[in-house]
Design goal:
194 residues; two-stranded antiparallel ribbon; 4-stranded antiparallel β-sheet; globular
Length: 194
């Protein structure tokens, strides 16, 4: 596993700054470009190794960002991240496909185990991202609240202020709202039971 930090503040990266350096958005885009160039070099070297043809590469961000579009911290769109599975071990029916699915990082391991035919029942909060079955919602974690996105429905709720933010597109008594509350209650209870 490798974790890059160049797209985290202060966005201080070496090399040419192709987007300029006037704004935070410029600096963020330069850091993303730098990361892309590092990945390009990594894959060029990896292709020359014996293990390359037998390796599945999974590329994912640890979280989204408010930049470069200057989104609000609580905007669920700021937490949308890509997930890329790349390599020869991918089943032929999934090669070159693209899916627009809701999912969380915890579903990566579950989905991988499902693809390998390995028991994954310990991942009770997860969905198989490759399944055609309808998926449950996705939990968004904020420092002082939570978000829930389920289909076109989404909510953002702040615990300290006991209020829904304008990003909420559902009513407090909707089924999606109840799913989000139940998910969070079950998650906390499981943690407390450890």
């Amino acid at each position: 596993m490798m974790l890059t930090l160049s797209t985290h503040e202060p966005f201080d990266v070496p090399g040419k700054k192709i987007f300029g350096e006037k704004t935070e958005s410029d600096k963020f885009k330069n850091s993303a470009y730098y990361t892309d160039q590092c990945l390009k070099k990594f894959f060029a070297l990896a292709r020359k190794t014996k293990w390359y043809s037998n390796t599945l590469f999974i590329l994912v961000a640890d979280h989204g960002h408010i930049l470069p579009k200057k989104r609000d911290y609580y905007d669920p769109a700021a937490y949308r991240i890509p997930l890329l599975w790349y390599g020869n071990p991918i089943k032929s029916e999934f090669r070159g496909t693209q899916r627009n699915r809701l999912g969380g990082q915890h579903e990566i391991a579950y989905s991988l185990l499902q693809q390998l035919g390995i028991k994954a029942s310990d991942y009770e909060f997860s969905n198989n991202l490759f399944s055609e079955q309808k998926h449950k919602g996705v939990y968004l974690n904020y420092d002082n609240g939570y978000g829930w996105k389920e289909g076109d429905d989404q909510i953002v709720y702040l615990f300290s202020e006991k209020k829904h933010l304008p990003y909420s597109q559902i009513t407090p008594d909707s089924l999606s709202m109840k799913h989000g509350q139940a998910f969070l209650q079950k998650l906390y209870q499981q943690f407390l039971d450890l």
